[in-house]
Amino acid sequence: DAKTTQPNSMESNEEEPVHLPCNHSTISGTDYIHWYRQLPSQGPEYVIHGLTSNVNNRMASLAIAEDRKSSTLILHRATLRDAAVYYCILRDRTDYGGSQGNLIFGKGTKLSVKP
Amino acid sequence: ETGVTQTPRHLVMGMTNKKSLKCEQHLGHNAMYWYKQSAKKPLELMFVYNFKEQTENNSVPSRFSPECPNSSHLFLHLHTLQPEDSALYLCASSQDLGRPLHFGDGTRLSIL
After folding, report:
1. Which residues of B touch A41 (CB under 8 A)?
2. pLDDT of B17-75, one tens digit each?
3. For residue A111, which of A81, A79, A77, A85 has the smallest C-alpha distance?
4. Which end of chain A is more exposed for a tag (fewer CB within 10 A), N or C?
5. Which of A6, A9, A32, A42 to mutate to test the interface with B (most CBs of B within 10 A)?
């Protein structure tokens, strides 16, 4: 069962910030929020993950709502290479290797970037 | 270069053939995975191996048979496949079960 809800598609302009939303209203206290993306003709690629606090890395930032029922992946300056399907996934940190701890993909958000 | 190499990249086979997909990683990871990605459908987890032991079989038909001889190699043996098995088969590895996954670019399988 999909535990996250994402828009099917989004568009952005090159060089502008992009905010990709994800709703996870049934998140449990032991769920990490993970983001992956899949570029055309490639396997998925890890982007970022977090539990409660906002997280930053070289690829993106992850903003997590205070009640943890939603999160936003932020690409600070979109490039054409960021056009991909972005997946928001919950993983139960107490069940790695089990059904709730495995990486289970939904449909994701297809991001288009216009020059 | 993802660190996870899958061969072949493309495979066309008949329903009565037997073939194998190969996945190799030299990242020193302990866990390996097979996923299936069909057109217009989300990725589906098939199998999980941790330290060469299978920890997850996600109700996969027996015509798909995984093999993990060591932590660096993972195979998917195929026999008597159906047309609906045509898909992109993705291999991934992770340092441990809870760490981020590194995916290969997949084998595009077509069943005639």
Report:
1. 105
2. 899 999 999 999 999 999 999 998 899 999 999 999 988 888 899 999 999 999 999 99
3. A85
4. N
5. A42
